[in-house]
Amino acid sequence: MKLSVLSGKGGTGKTLITVNLASVAEDSVYIDCDVEEPNAYLFFEPKSFKEDIVAVKSPRVDINLCSACKKCLEFCNFNALAYIKDKLLVFQELCHSCGACSILCPDKAITETDRPIGRVMVCQTSPKAPVSLYTGFLDPGEASGVPIINRLFDEAKNEADKDIFIDCPPGSSCLVMDSIKEADYCILVAEPTIFGVHNLAMVYDLVRLLKKPHGVVLNKCVEGENPVEAFCQDRGIKVLARIPFDKKLGEISSNAGIAAMEDKKYHEFFLSLLRIVKEELGCERATYPKR
Amino acid sequence: MKIAIPVDENNMDTRVSVSYGRAPYFLIYDIESEKASFVENRAAVSRGGAGIIAAQLIADSKVQALLTPRLGQNAADVLSAADIKVYKARPTLAKDNIKAFIDGELSQLEEVHPGFHGGR
Lengths: 291, 120
Known about the structure:
- The complex is a heterodimer of chains A (291) and B (120).
- By secondary structure, chain A is an alpha/beta fold.
- In chain A, 36% of the residues lie in helices and 27% in strands.
- Chain A is built from eleven helices and eleven strands.
């Protein structure tokens, strides 16, 4: 089972839920796709890991070979090239590493080289909770973490028979789309405010667009009206669980603790959430046989 | 000397466009011969990097100065490589800006914004 946890904004509780679910599941895999600010490793305290650089292809120009035909400029879909005063300028942050310029160049003036943009870490075991952790780090200033997320999924390929928990970046951008593309089920996390409804609507649209089975976890629930609850009711979205606004839960997380490991009540809570998701998945599999 | 201005319409009564990279046309004006021509900005509809192709277009038009209300960092890099000076245009008619430029009333554009790159 591959389960992605996402939300329309940061700080809703994605990592809280993913960390706790992965902890109560047996022999689980955790992929932290929030490569701009990964933090799951803080909870699992991995002791041993394997690290690797992630690089993307980047055009390198030998201007002595260039005959100024500008074919590369015309073809580049992202306008990452400019030819000014006998020089070919490359805008790295716009380049999507498609390689077309190097293939098209009749003068063989453009070749592709590796440009590092970050790294991935594969953490073998953790003493606190038996989880295999895959986490990526995008270098500051780099525009897109998509290659790092793809690499994380590549690295975790041989774990496909295990339960895989995917902690997504906030929002509904390309990074999130790549983080849920392999998911069998998506948990949408939402806060009980009008702003929370707006953020939920963004990820709700995304999971429907990608035809992903999904349910909502309401976090930080307090007494009284919850606009997110109404939103879910109106659209017939399944509410999987309601996490109370609990100071203790906040304190455990702030100290990099895992509530399900420290508190029996929360162990039960997340175990029950995991069961509900698995049941949902069973139903959904019957509804969507071909995916 | 030739100058370029991002404009809304392809006639001499046009206003300066509020956008640079997404302006529909560039007015290319030759100060000595007083001849004007309009270049369609193919960057206007591009998905990204509009500032860069617009700057390429301007550089290929062999102008020495650009009059624009605003400019992004990537475009500024291309224009600087092409030795094209950038002046701050006023939000009025293009011809008023041409006159102001000839009279030396326009100052060089100091502020460059980092661009609006998103949706990747």
